């Protein structure tokens, strides 16, 4: 359970960030209207905004200007939203429900959904180039590179390619971890690092935050696999049992529910250990680790 202070912090950021997204996305009356409406449909009014919350928490730790973190968070969330739109399409996971409403290609059409993903990705990098995130131009270029790597063939897109190639196959635990370090973990790690880099951190501190992000990114996927097995569609906001139906390798199919839960708890402990040196400044990151992992308990 979330404590009330964390719940209030998260709710305040989620509400404020929704306004940020509404302002940064193209307005629905601007041509091409249908595409812009579909982009807003895919992004707004849905999801827990875990990645932005991680960025805001890391930004607070690093003393970052929240206006800068707004942009970094929006870029990460737009990449995430585009990946969901594409993942749900018939050529990928072929799903009809996302965040409790029809998927983008169902609400609009497949061609529009494809363009929505393309446009959201372009918008994400446009935001990072247009707004000042750091007083050091070289660091800002590194931040853009970081998100590009986390999104591309060595990150999220590569992980999805491994996922598609693994349907019906048995993967070892290291192989499964490698897939999810890329597919799910890369963007979560990027959210933490980008939030921190909007402020001031040392390279040693950044390395510890990266390890935290890696552990939480893996734990997020382990917990998702458990919930896909045990929770219902209404609770998840997406079709329950889809992984089993598609014969996808998961932590539950490989380890069983009990061992998958134990793995999530171990990753949770490692994530918290990574934050030890930060003291009270990492409170929100610790609470987010609890929020991400304890959903399955």
Tally the structural domains.
1
Largest sheet: 2 strands, antiparallel
Strand content: under 5%
Mind telling me which CATH architecture this is? Orthogonal Bundle
SSE string, helix = H, strand = E? HHHHEEHHHHHHHHHHH
Overall pLDDT level: 93
User: Briefly, what CATH class?
Assistant: Mainly Alpha
Q: Tell me the helix content.
A: over 70%
Counted by DSSP, the helix tally is 15
Note down, in words, how this protein is organized:
By secondary structure, the chain is mostly helical. The protein has a single domain, classed as Farnesyl Diphosphate Synthase, CATH 1.10.600.10. 71% of the residues lie in helices and 1% in strands. The protein has a two-stranded antiparallel ribbon. Strand 1 and strand 2 (101-102) form a beta hairpin. Helix 9 (173-197) packs across helix 10 (203-230) and helix 10 (203-230) packs antiparallel against helix 14. The longest helix is centred in the last third of the chain and has 28 residues, at 203-230. The termini are close together.
């Amino acid at each position: 359970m979330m404590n009330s202070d964390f719940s209030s912090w998260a709710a305040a950021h989620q509400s404020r960030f929704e306004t940020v997204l509404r302002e940064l996305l193209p307005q629905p009356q601007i041509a091409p209207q249908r595409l812009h409406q579909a982009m807003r449909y895919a992004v707004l009014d849905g999801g827990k905004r875990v990645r932005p919350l991680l960025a805001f928490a890391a930004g607070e730790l690093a003393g970052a200007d929240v206006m800068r973190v707004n942009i970094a968070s929006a870029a990460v969330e737009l990449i995430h939203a585009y990946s969901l739109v594409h993942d749900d399409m018939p050529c990928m996971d072929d799903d009809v429900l996302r965040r409790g409403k029809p998927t983008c290609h169902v609400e609009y059409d497949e061609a529009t959904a494809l363009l929505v993903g393309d446009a959201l990705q372009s918008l994400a990098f446009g935001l990072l180039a247009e707004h000042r995130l750091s007083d050091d131009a070289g660091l800002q270029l590194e931040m853009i590179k970081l998100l590009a790597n986390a999104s591309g063939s060595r990150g999220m897109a590569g992980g999805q390619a491994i996922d598609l190639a693994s349907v019906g196959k048995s993967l070892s635990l290291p192989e499964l971890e490698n897939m999810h370090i890329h597919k799910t973990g890369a963007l979560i790690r990027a959210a933490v690092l980008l939030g921190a880099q909007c402020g001031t951190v040392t390279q040693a501190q950044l390395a510890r935050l990266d390890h935290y992000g890696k552990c939480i990114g893996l734990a997020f996927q382990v917990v998702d696999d458990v919930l896909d097995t045990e929770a219902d569609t209404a609770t998840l906001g997406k079709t329950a049992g889809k992984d089993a139906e598609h014969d996808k390798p998961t932590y539950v199919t490989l380890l069983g529910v009990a061992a998958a839960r134990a793995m999530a708890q171990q990753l949770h402990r490692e994530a918290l250990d990574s934050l030890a040196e930060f003291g009270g400044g990492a409170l929100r990151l610790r609470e987010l680790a609890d929020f991400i992992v304890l959903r399955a308990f």
